[in-house]
Design goal:
This protein is mostly helical. The protein has one domain. It is built from 6 helices and no strands. α1 packs across α3. The mean pLDDT is about 90.
Length: about 140
């Protein structure tokens, strides 16, 4: 379903890196130290914006749709999982079962897929609306 794997891979890596940086910052916010629930609330809010940014950036050169957004998000999650297996878990977490046994991880996955589908849907509606210039050309 993805038309441009090179661009999708680039945006998937950027998405993963932005999440990595955001989570690294969230962990060290003094007001949230020791408050894992509060950290995840902040993360889930930030994830909305990071998903929107990366998905909408990919769709600047690809045809958006809800279906394409879902496929793109799944691709992002696959690339992110590979990067987590190479970088995050061995270097920082060191607990495979704890990392993949966390329900918060799967809530984040679901959130990313839903947001990507919504972005694809709304961008497809935006692109399909005729502009006043298009209307004038069609009338002539």
């Amino acid at each position: 379903m993805l038309k441009n794997y090179k661009s999708a891979t680039l945006w998937a890596v950027i998405f993963w890196a932005l999440i990595f940086v955001a989570w690294s910052i969230i962990m060290f916010i003094p007001a949230l130290e020791g408050n894992l629930f509060g950290q995840y609330i902040v993360y889930f809010i930030i994830l909305i914006f990071l998903t929107w940014l990366c998905v909408s950036s990919y769709f600047k050169k690809a045809s958006p749709s809800a279906k394409a957004g879902i496929f793109l998000a799944i691709y992002f999650l696959i690339i992110g999982t590979i990067l987590d297996m190479i970088v995050t878990i061995p270097l920082f977490v060191k607990d495979w079962a704890g990392f993949y046994g966390s329900w918060q991880l799967y809530v984040g996955f679901a959130e990313a897929i839903i947001i990507a589908a919504l972005v694809g849907h709304f961008l497809s509606k935006k692109k399909s609306k005729p502009t006043p210039v298009t209307d004038q050309v069609a009338e002539q």
